[in-house]
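Inverse folding, one chain.
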């Protein structure tokens, strides 16, 4: 008989009932150190007092009101995002994949309104992940995600990650945009070198096409900058955001320049829940912390500490780990055994990590993790690796 919850997930037998900062408490009382943050969602950890206060205060005032009316919390969050980024304007969604839907629509509408109705193609890259909606799976184009779901939304050209020649050849007078993650998350924590992101910006400028960045996972302070593209010193035309921006409340956004957003006039797009008062009240509290340069400086300092300890871990367990990679607190351990085995060994050692493609285990701790918790995390990962080595022997 089919389970009452549609069985699309492979779930670990873990039942977390409470979260406190960097810790997840299991129903049986065990305390797990959380290096997953709900896949880069709980940017400020669990039950951060400022987020709890923002949520409960708003919950007592007004949960939801339609976008038919003014929403001051939405306006405030948009103002914060515009003040802190390249963007001139923001649309709020409830998830990353909805942000992908709008990014694709916005790019196509831009060219449509310019009279270039043939310019609909969007170039994307192997190993990327843009969500599970029709546009999201079409954009990523991986066989695993699209199989059985035909007809797949058309208009995407898939290029091998790092194949510069194929990329240049793929740009035609039908190209509307290039869409890429500055750091691939699901693909296995693969940062795009700064030079490549600069090159993509130059290529887009040369041909007058739009650059769309998917910062759903790598944005909101995760890499030590508010948004990852800042490391390369370039700006996109359109950017997808979600995950960390809500700190655990389902919230996403599409940020854009005035020019790139010019096609999206009244009536061209909408959402019932997107930008609702509860989500935006929490989003404002997240931004107040994460956009603070002192907070980001701490993220960078702690990222250095974690990375240094992980290099030691890799050196101590050459049978389990190959390398550390990533940026800021978006780190990956390339594994020799299957990543699921490493993740399971972590569970036994009461530390939570997240598997990714390319044989990588992701470490995405709360950005608020303390130095002591970093040391404890690596101690637990070390115990997990030791146990795994004994198992494999
Ligand atoms: C998680 C993710 C998405 C999809 O977000 P959902 O909220 O699950 O729809 C899109 N892009 C990237 C880079 C992601 O990591």
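Residues assigned per position:
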């Amino acid at each position: 008989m089919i389970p009452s919850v549609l069985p699309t997930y492979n779930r670990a037998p873990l039942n977390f009932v409470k979260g406190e900062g960097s810790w997840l408490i299991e129903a049986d009382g065990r305390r797990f150190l959380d290096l997953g943050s709900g896949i880069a969602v709980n940017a400020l950890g669990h039950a951060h007092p400022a987020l709890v206060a923002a949520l409960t205060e708003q919950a007592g005032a007004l949960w939801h009101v339609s976008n038919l009316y003014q929403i001051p919390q939405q306006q405030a969050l948009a103002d914060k995002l515009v003040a802190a980024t390249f963007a001139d304007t923001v649309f709020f969604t409830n998830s990353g994949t909805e942000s992908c839907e709008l990014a694709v629509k916005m790019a196509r509408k831009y060219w449509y309104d310019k009279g270039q109705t043939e310019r609909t193609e969007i170039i994307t890259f192997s190993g990327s992940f843009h969500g599970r909606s029709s546009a999201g799976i079409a954009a990523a184009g991986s066989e695993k995600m699209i199989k059985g779901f035909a007809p797949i939304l058309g208009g995407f050209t898939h290029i091998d990650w790092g194949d510069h020649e194929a990329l240049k050849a793929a740009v035609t007078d039908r190209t509307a945009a290039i869409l890429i993650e500055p750091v691939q998350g699901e693909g296995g924590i693969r940062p795009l070198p700064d030079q490549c992101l600069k090159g993509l910006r130059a290529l887009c400028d040369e041909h007058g096409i739009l650059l769309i960045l998917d910062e759903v996972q790598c944005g909101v302070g995760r890499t030590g900058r508010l948004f990852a593209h800042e490391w390369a010193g370039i700006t996109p035309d359109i950017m997808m955001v979600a995950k960390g921006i809500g700190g655990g409340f389902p919230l996403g956004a599409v940020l854009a320049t005035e020019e790139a957003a010019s096609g999206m006039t009244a009536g061209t797009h909408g959402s019932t829940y997107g930008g609702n008062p509860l989500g935006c009240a929490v989003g404002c509290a997240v931004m107040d912390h994460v956009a603070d340069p002192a907070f980001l400086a701490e993220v960078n300092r702690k990222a250095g500490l974690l990375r240094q300890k992980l290099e030691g871990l890799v050196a101590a367990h050459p049978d389990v780990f190959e390398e550390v990679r990533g940026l800021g607190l978006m780190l990956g351990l390339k594994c020799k055994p299957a990543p699921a085995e490493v993740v399971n060994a972590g569970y036994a050692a009461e530390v939570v990590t997240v598997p990714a493609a390319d044989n990588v285990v992701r470490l995405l701790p709360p950005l608020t993790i303390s130095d002591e918790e970093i040391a404890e995390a690596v101690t637990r990962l070390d115990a997990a690796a030791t146990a795994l080595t004994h198992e494999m022997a």
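The chain is about 40% helix and 20% strand. Residues 149 and 182 are 28 Å apart (CA to CA).
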